Amino acid sequence: MEEKSQIQEAIKVQGEVVRKLKSEKASKEQIDEEVAKLLQLKAQLGDDGKHTFVLKTAKETLTGKYGEDSKLIYDLKDQGGELLSLRYDLTVPFARYLAMNKITNIKRYHIAKVYRRDNPAMTRGRYREFYQCDFDIAGQYDAMIPDAECLKIVYEILSELDLGDFRIKVNDRRILDGMFAVCGVPDEKFRTICSTVDKLDKMPWEDVKKEMVNEKGLSEEVADQIGEYVSMQGGMDLAERLLQDQKMSQSKQACAGLSDIKLLLSYLQLFQVTDKVVFDLSLARGLDYYTGVIYEAMLTQAGVAPVAAETPNGAPREETASVGSVAGGGRYDGLVGMFDPKGRKVPCVGVSIGIERIFSIMEQKAEASAERVRTTEVQVMVAAAQKNLLEERLKLITELWNAGIKAELMYKKNPKLLSQLQHCEESGIPLVAILGEQELKDGVVKLRIVATREEVPLIQNLHCVSLQLCTLTQKPTTCFFLFVISAFLLNLYLRFIYTSVLVWEAITFSHPKQSILHVLT
Amino acid sequence: MEEKSQIQEAIKVQGEVVRKLKSEKASKEQIDEEVAKLLQLKAQLGDDGKHTFVLKTAKETLTGKYGEDSKLIYDLKDQGGELLSLRYDLTVPFARYLAMNKITNIKRYHIAKVYRRDNPAMTRGRYREFYQCDFDIAGQYDAMIPDAECLKIVYEILSELDLGDFRIKVNDRRILDGMFAVCGVPDEKFRTICSTVDKLDKMPWEDVKKEMVNEKGLSEEVADQIGEYVSMQGGMDLAERLLQDQKMSQSKQACAGLSDIKLLLSYLQLFQVTDKVVFDLSLARGLDYYTGVIYEAMLTQAGVAPVAAETPNGAPREETASVGSVAGGGRYDGLVGMFDPKGRKVPCVGVSIGIERIFSIMEQKAEASAERVRTTEVQVMVAAAQKNLLEERLKLITELWNAGIKAELMYKKNPKLLSQLQHCEESGIPLVAILGEQELKDGVVKLRIVATREEVPLIQNLHCVSLQLCTLTQKPTTCFFLFVISAFLLNLYLRFIYTSVLVWEAITFSHPKQSILHVLT
């Protein structure tokens, strides 16, 4: 083991290397590689007990992960403690957490706020604090199974939310890189050409080609080759065709990616979600830390308002947001290793749902439908028809609250009945329990249905509801009505009983000598 | 209307006044008063359209509200935009929101993170980012009704969480101030003597008295007088006794407070929560913005670990945390007015639940009880007994997911049965659906109960569960069992039917010529 002073010297040198690369705006992988080396050196110092390498949720965690978007990170003022910043997304904190706690396998979702500074050049409609909703599976597993589950989840969410039709594009970093290689793109331009390809969802091919040739220095032939590939989309058939493609098959990397895409699509078929999935070679997501499969979900409905340049789905480069993009993600096998002193890798795959965008769409739909949306779940308003009935209202509402019924009353000693009823109509409260002097003498509370304005007398003691139901059964129509419902319900109960017994025994961890099931079967 | 230049001059002068007061560490009320004047002047400028007074969630919102604790606020670095800070609690943001949106009546709860910097002198166990859980009622209402509801809510929460016995202390700022006045405390020392009284939950009276006399300059007689009062606690009787007290009754303020305490206690009696409520004259909460009733809830169980000096219930002054304090709040009628350019007041009352502290206690209890706590809600593990059954597992799990059952599978092509079963035991998954080659041929899936290790064959198509239940009914024991359960359930159904009809008609806003209820009754 090297002497401490030698390590400290090495740290100084390595620190310089990192600073130099950063000022030269070297490629992200280079910087990250050197940062990792630096962290490893520092960790070596830790082994002698003098300096402990403690991974903190500190500013250094966020640097070097977002490339150009680092300037969008909110830093906290230096007030004498350690330098802190606010998290930019939920993925980097997740990776840091895994490394810090030496976790090798975990599956979790996280719904929380993230913080991004306004880009001073683009200040309109920019969220500075907004929700992200992430789901990630970390661990060394057999290929594509967790990746397929992430896509199944996106499909389920978008289907259930009733946002209209959607598509999920899938692609793979290795296919993109392999494609660039066989088309003749120089290695060091992969990332930057990838960014340009990424603009295809916002710009027509001619403009994208222009950028490749004029700004990024590709020859027209190379650009045209790329153009042929990135216009391809399909399913399993496309993956198979490309594996046979003369050019593409030359790249081992691309073939690995294509095989995995085939595997993924076969799993998605079993998950019954292929109807909305498209293998699309033009998909190139912004974040550099993706290493394998990548995907993006988009709504296809016309009439969806254009999204602000902020990407709600997690990609920090604003240009990545396509109109209608509501979710995105992919596999990122190298990120956790960047936080581990020994560089231990934990493969991860995940997806981020753009819930702020989805909220906007749902709000637009609600407004368009002129449907009333309640802001509370109050079921019963406890009201008084005359003055001096506050005490009775407080008593009744206490009974209702104790019985788990959501009730409220006006915070006035002598509110007018009309005001109380108006409040119900405005708030959408469906029922009113009205107390009145005469009714109190008769031992009755009037239950008013706000929608129909009908009133039903109820015996004040709600536990006597059953008594009232007994009176109902004296009528023949009622009996028939009850019979029909009961027969239907009985069927459901039988199913319920069987499953309940199983679950009950499981939950109570009971070890009966003779399980109820033995009795039953 | 004054000329613009005159207003600008006045703003400059007022700004100086504020700065001077702050540097002199003047009393909080004075500072806030002058800040409000300053804001009003600035607002006047806004009226001419040149400068719009826009209430932003900015750094200025937080200054002047927390007194000495302003140094615990996290400021964001000046990166070229407006100066921002992170919120310190949920109450000031709430007040700001009301003023900004000109809301006069609202009732809301808010569970979210708040941010407090380490006090460099006390760094141990200090949360920097933690959850608060607030409930507030804003609006002009009749006295004590919303205040009583806040206490009912605290009582309900603490009872349901099963944390053991608790007490809720109540007092009133007006009673405290009135008491200080009649005891002979000079006006300008009210706040600082209040802070000292607040330490009674942590220090014995002798030490508190010493601080009053030696540090705060009260005479021994005055301190003794205070001592007599602050040792009093009771209920309605104490409030009545104090209203007759020769000294106390001289203060109009105190009498108003005492009358309100009586009113509050009468409402709490109707809410059935007085068994845990104590009117305690020693309660003096830290926050200066309380104007009326104040309360604090404490657990009384022995063996509860001492709380970190951080107060989880919202009081920014660390000294306020008593051992076992889990909630606190009160009425604050002046806060919203500080954010309104015209100084319009909106009376508010609220409570903050110390959920971080409650979490600690619940965690300790869970550990002590050695009860297993699951981290997922997975109901069924989809497993395979042999190799090459991944496709079948994916198909079955898709059926289960589509049916809304929480299921998972191992992300391996050929996992060992034992590993899958072990995973269930570790995660507490109660059921395993085991696929096997022979069973597949027989069209059967084995359902294994993890707790008992028994296995039950199920026909693969889960929709056929009912068929299997039919076979059950051929056994006499089963019939009896089902009969008993059905009779019980039938009773519940009748009650359910009656209520459902009412609710259904309310929800569907139906106007039947003859309501079903007319038919039934």
Automatic annotation (TrEMBL), chains A, B:
Q: Does the keyword Transmembrane apply?
A: yes
Q: What reaction is this protein's catalytic activity?
A: tRNA(His) + L-histidine + ATP = L-histidyl-tRNA(His) + AMP + diphosphate + H(+)
EC number(s) stated in the UniProt entry for this protein: 6.1.1.21
GO MF term set: ATP binding; histidine-tRNA ligase activity; identical protein binding; RNA binding
Q: Which GO terms describe its cellular component?
A: cytosol; mitochondrion
Q: Which GO terms describe its biological process?
A: histidyl-tRNA aminoacylation; mitochondrial translation
Which spans are transmembrane here? 480-504
Listed A to Z, the keywords are: Aminoacyl-tRNA synthetase, ATP-binding, Coiled coil, Cytoplasm, Ligase, Membrane, Nucleotide-binding, Protein biosynthesis, Transmembrane, Transmembrane helix
Q: What class of enzyme is it?
A: ligase
Q: Where is the Aminoacyl-transfer RNA synthetases class-II family profile domain?
A: 109-362
Q: Which InterPro entries match?
A: aa-tRNA-synth_II (IPR006195), aa-tRNA-synth_II/BPL/LPL (IPR045864), Anticodon-bd (IPR004154), Anticodon-bd_dom_sf (IPR036621), HisRS-like_core (IPR041715), HisRS_anticodon (IPR033656), uS15_NS1_RNA-bd_sf (IPR009068), WHEP-TRS_dom (IPR000738)
The parts of the chain that form a coiled coil are 21-48
Q: Where is the WHEP-TRS domain?
A: 3-59
Family, as annotated: Belongs to the class-II aminoacyl-tRNA synthetase family.
UniProt protein name: histidine--tRNA ligase
